[in-house]
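Field notebook, page 468. I keep forgetting to write these up properly, so this time I am using the form the group agreed on. The chain and the ligand, flavin-adenine dinucleotide, are recorded exactly as supplied. Prediction of the bound pose follows.
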Amino acid sequence: MTAGAVPQSGHIINLSRMDGISAIRRDDKGSFYITVQAGTTLSELREQIKDKNFDISKWSEESRETFKEFCKAPEQFFSPDPTETSATLGGMVACNASGARSYLYGSTRKHITAIKIALCSGHTLTIRRGEIFAAGRKLDLVTDQGHSFTVNLPAYEMPKTKNTSGYYVENDMDAIDLFIGSEGTLGIITDIEVRLLPLPRIIWGICCLFENGNYAVDFITVLREQLTNIAAIEFFDVGSLAILRAQKKENPAFARLRTVEERINAVVYIELHCDHENLAVENLAKMAQLMKESGGTEKDSWVARNNADRDSLLFFRHAVPESVNMLIDQRKRKDPAIIKLGTDMSVPDRHLRRVMSMYHSMLNESGLQSAIWGHIGDNHLHFNILPHNEEEYKKGQALYAQWAIEITRLGGAISAEHGIGKLKTGFLEIMYGRNHIFEMAALKAVFDPKGLLCPGNIFARQQLKDKK
Ligand SMILES: Cc1cc2nc3c(=O)[nH]c(=O)nc-3n(C[C@H](O)[C@H](O)[C@H](O)COP(=O)(O)OP(=O)(O)OC[C@H]3O[C@@H](n4cnc5c(N)ncnc54)[C@H](O)[C@@H]3O)c2cc1C
């Protein structure tokens, strides 16, 4: 997504065998917390939680006792849901991953209560949420081996929108938040304690199909204002639907995709989470009414009330980025200069329509192929430019830079989900300015004086050379 895990040089560290769950605890309110090793994938974690099937052979007596309570308790879940479930927990924490359900539950950050990090010095840091705070923008840390040091936090103010652009910093912040979203630049996360939530009894998926894209945006606006049990609101534009239709026709792996008639130009996916069926039915009826008032019709909707139907809607959701990635891959084989050009910018609620029309008019003018989809509930869409050759790629890059300037001006974030990696360092400079980039680099140097960890992530080597 951002080339964060693509090395420019040096060594690759593979954590895939650091997988497993090592402990469970319960707080006095009855919530469960499990400690997971960083190489565990999200799909493995989900499966083990669902099946209540952990290898407890090396667990403490206390954890084993809590596990008995866990087995008797109602089903639990870990809410962060990046579409790609092969993500590891370490990767999710490093990128502060989010997903469709972050609309209701928040991103990974909100569900992490402790982490252990291996530092370049060979020491480890163990940080529990709520225990270590900065004083203003100064943070004192002590490693597990007893070494104390102080970190000066950069002075910028983060936007009030969904945001994963650069280091998370604010006055008097909790120390754990500095490491969540630090994209592998400060240390290697080895162990993570995550908070589980009781799984809602009713989870329904609903796809609302619209002939006009503007009707879909009208619908989303009233939906956000009037309904509260919504966990996800996702959007797919005409370009995304065209790519899906082509995939269904040409690629057997996508043959089971649902058919979307040519007259449909936008789809909105909604997930309802309720504890009672009556409440879900009430919400569904209200949704149907809002859909009608916004120019849609009830017959143009798919409702998934069981897991099999919901999986088919989620397959539809996942097929969009997957297909775009495949398309870029094919074109890259012909012209290696092409790299995926996908935005993940966010803006405050009041600017959603304005930025959508900006993106549309600039894309139309440019003549470039595009596909737009994503987390519209948080005003956070993926505008993907799909270049055929280097010339179009460069044109797309120039558009992206113009958008970054406008998004910054509107108080948004140039990355709300995937982080900066190596592909968006220039946009981060647009957002925060060069001096704050130097402050971030100085912060990294405290943890990693030789610049060994993920060089090129968040700030490019060139940006730092320019300072010298
Ligand atoms: C088709 C597709 C759809 C996606 N959809 C979403 C989505 O909806 N929401 C979303 O947020 N993301 C999404 N992503 C991105 C991806 O899910 C996240 O970036 C994920 O959290 C990364 O996890 P990973 O294990 O793959 O990490 P990697 O890609 O291996 O690494 C990502 C970065 O984290 C660092 N890192 C990894 N492990 C550690 C560790 N243990 N300690 C320190 N640093 C570490 C790496 O150095 C790298 O910089 C999607 C990706 C794909 C391919």
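OBSERVATIONS:
- The mean pLDDT is 95.
- Residues 202-409 form a domain with the Vanillyl-alcohol Oxidase; Chain A, domain 3 fold (CATH 3.40.462.10).
FOLLOW-UP: compare against the apo run.
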